[in-house]
Structure formats: C-alpha cells, structure tokens
Amino acid sequence: MIAMSVRRRGLPMRGVLMCLLAALAWTAHAAPPTDADVNRLLAASRAQNMLDSMLPQLEQMQREQFARIATDRPLTATQQAQLRQVQDRTRQTLSQALSWSQMRPMYVDLYKRTFSREDVIAMAEFYESPAGQSLLDKTPLLMRNVMDAIQQKMTPMMADLQKDLNQILAEPAPSPAPAAKPVKP
Question: What whole-number distance in Å separates Cα of residue 136 and Cα of residue 56?
C-alpha cells in the first residue's frame, strides 16, 4: 500500500529505500561521545577550574547565611559554638560534594546524554583554539561587566520600589473593624 502510494506520487521504491538508508546513516553518525571525548572537552573548557572557583563563592554565601542566623537572635556561647560546628561541617560537606573527583563523573554522564560525539569534539576543538582560550580568559570579566550593568539598570527601579514601600509604610494602618455581635436566636 505504501509502495503503491509512493509510486503514484512519482518516487520509485529505490528512492524511498535511499531515504531510509540516509536516515539510518544519520543516526549512526550521531554517535554518543566516549568518556575520552568528554574528558578532552572538560580539560579544554577548564571545567575543573570553573568548579574550583565556584567553591569559595558558595562558602562565602554560606558564611553570610550563618552570620545572618547569628545576628537575627541573641545566641548563647554554647549555641554560637554549635553554630560554628554546623558551619564547619557544612563547609566540609560542600567541599567534598563539589570536589572534582565527585563531580567529574556527573559531568561526563551529563555531557554524554546531552551531546553527540560530533558536538563534543567540535566544542573541544573550539576551546583548544586561540578564540576558545580567549573566551575562557575573558568570561569572568564579561560576567562582572554584565553584573555591573544589571546593577546600574536595577538601581533606579529599586529606588522607585523603595519609594512605594516607604509610602505604604507611612500610611496609618486602618483600625480593625468592630467585631460583629452574635445574633441571639
């Protein structure tokens, strides 16, 4: 039935087979990358360095969070010591969980599930090129500049929001409505 309808439209059966073979060749060409392919990309893209540079930022956020906890309410000396212990344990756990030896297998697996071998090789070649290395070198500066630009854009908006909040807070609170008297049956 399919062959008959294909023939009626002017495509010979040989053309249909060629299309099917081309599709099969394409799927075979889109082979998954090997561990070695992904490791090459991870090395070229400096993935370990990026992960290692994230850890101090995460630790700083953690310190700030613990500092807020400590300033929100008065703590006894014992509670402060316990808080420091939890903070140290959290830092150690974070450091261990985000170590390259723990994260590399996850990266390899995710890249293998996400990209074809052809993609991974092309990305590795790019990052190994002078342009790729320049991108890696300049990305931190780009991100700082982006954050500065966002902050400049947000400052006037936040000032307007602060005015609105101040206006709301300056208005006296409405007095509560008198409680309804129960109806006697």
Answer: 19
Provide CB contacts within 8 A for 38, sequence distance 6+: 107, 108, 111, 112, 120
Cα separation, 184 vs 134, in Å, equals: 83
3-state secondary structure labels for all residues of 53-87? HHHHHHHHHHHHHHHHHHHHCCCCHHHHHHHHHHH
Q: Alpha helices, DSSP H only, in the chain?
A: 2-8, 13-29, 35-44, 47-72, 77-97, 100-114, 117-128, 130-170
Cα gap 114→40, rounded to integer Å: 16
Helix (H/G/I), strand (E/B), else coil: 143? helix
Nearest to 39, CA basis, from 105, 134, 115: 105
pLDDT (tens, 9 = 90+) of the chain, 185 residues, equals 444 444 445 445 555 545 455 555 554 457 999 999 999 999 999 999 999 988 898 889 888 888 888 787 888 889 888 888 999 998 999 899 999 999 999 999 999 999 999 999 999 999 999 999 999 999 999 999 999 999 999 998 888 888 888 888 887 766 766 666 666 66
Task: Give the global pTM.
Answer: 0.63
Residues comprising the chain, all counted: 185
